[in-house]
Design goal:
Layout lengths: L10 E4 L15 H14 L3 H7 E8 L6 H6 L4 E3 L4 H8 L5 E2 L3 E2 L4 E6 L3 E8 L5 E7 L10 H6 L1 E3 L8 H14 L4 E9 L5 E9 L2 H11 L3 E2 L2 E3 L2 E3 L1 E9 L9 E2 L18 E3 L8 H9 L3 E11 L5 E8 L4 H12 L2 E2 L2 E3 L2 E3 L1 E11 L1
Parallel strand pairs: 1-23, 2-8, 5-16
Antiparallel strand pairs: 2-3, 4-6, 6-7, 7-8, 9-12, 10-11, 10-15, 13-14, 17-20, 18-19, 18-23, 21-22
Helix pairs in contact: 1-2, 2-4
């Protein structure tokens, strides 16, 4: 992703001794090693190797299995105990997983896909011995998530580029220029029902609320053919990144943090100008020792927050906990003390929400 534009989806707040989500991850990075191990074990249909990678309780968020037996055993999201992992590992070997071209902003979360265009997320536990802590549809709910390519293949009506009309584009172009950016963007979660009609449009993240509104208005007019999965039409969701201007040069797609399923438009943290507070928030010595005793690794936490028209931080909530309750409280307290310049839209300061990711890593 071009880091000079609004295409940066979140700020990774680095602490001393930290590693952010690997923009330059090498083959020896623990996350890359874990990804390779999972792909190899599933590809070899090595049930025992897959099971060794699973950690109980496993947070299962739904998958589409080709065999009726597996579909019946694991029909809906659930917490899977150790007794369920042998059968689940066997079912995973039926899915020819491969890496997506998308990356995830959270260190430890990987995006995969498998035919017929199913997109899923795998969260690896990054403390001690790495393993799969969560797996399921990328939308993180029970409805199958399909890739943007699979969605496009089923299009019946609508402009796939979601081109903005000149009158809608004009103020957005002005805002891009004022910010010194190269493009504006919106991440949208789009769901269609079993007939192919658009049923839900939810914001994930956008350069500004105006950008989301412009793209959402277009997306709501789209129509698709019914998506047939498992030999029957199914409701599906897809995570879309739309950009303006449509011909802007953009490289990798970095999936934003998993916000609550609401209609609040979050903006990327890098468009906010912080005036108070620091993102250098190391854990206490007791938490460092606990992490060391667990075998080292990374603490990764994500929080959503809003700033009021005066720039004061409000509504701080955890999105992804680090696994260390004391450190979570410390991060939340630090974030609550931050302040920003007011966010101005159409000449007026407004309330706006965003997110921040903290990553602390030690050997």
């Amino acid at each position: 992703m071009n880091r000079s534009g609004w295409g940066v989806l979140a700020v990774l707040a680095a602490c001393s001794g930290t590693a952010t989500r690997g923009l330059n991850q090498g083959k020896d990075d623990p996350q890359v090693v874990a990804e390779d191990a999972l792909i190899q074990a599933v590809g070899n249909k090595d049930v025992a190797a897959v099971q060794r990678l699973l950690r109980a309780p496993l947070d299962y968020r739904g998958l589409l299995f080709p065999t009726p037996e597996c579909a019946e055993q694991f029909p809906a999201p659930a917490q899977l105990g150790a007794d369920k992992l042998p059968a689940f590992a066997k079912c995973l070997t039926d899915l020819p997983l491969f890496r997506s071209n998308r990356r995830h902003v959270l260190y430890g979360v990987s995006v995969f896909q498998y035919e017929p265009g199913i997109e899923l997320e795998v969260q690896f536990r990054m403390t001690g011995r790495s393993g799969v802590h969560r797996i399921g549809y990328a939308s993180r709910r029970g409805t199958p998530t399909i890739t943007s390519g699979a969605l496009e293949a089923g299009r019946a009506e609508g402009d796939p580029v979601a081109s903005l009309s000149p009158d809608v584009a004009a103020p957005i172009d002005a805002a891009i220029k004022a910010a010194g950016a190269e493009f504006a963007y919106a991440w949208i979660e789009l769901c269609v029902d079993a007939t192919g009609a658009v049923s839900e449009v939810h914001p994930r993240e956008a350069s500004t609320p105006r950008v989301h509104e412009a793209f959402a208005a277009i997306v709501k007019t789209w129509k698709f053919k019914p998506f047939v999965l498992g030999e029957q039409p199914r409701a599906v969701c897809s995570l879309l990144r739309l950009i303006h201007p449509a011909d802007a040069t953009v490289t990798a797609e970095v999936v934003p943090v998993p916000y609550p399923l609401d209609d609040v438009v979050r903006v990327p943290n890098n468009v906010l100008k912080r005036t108070e507070g620091t993102d250098l928030v190391p854990p206490d010595d007791d938490d460092k020792l606990e992490l060391q005793n667990a075998g080292g690794g990374a603490m990764v936490g994500a929080f959503t927050f809003c700033i009021d028209p005066a720039g004061r931080v409000t509504k701080v909530k955890p999105l992804e906990r680090t696994g260390f309750a004391n450190y979570d409280r410390k991060l939340e307290t630090a974030l609550s003390g931050w302040a920003y310049q007011p966010f101005v839209s159409d000449g007026k300061p407004i309330e706006v929400c965003s997110a921040v990711v903290f990553v602390y890593q030690q050997p």
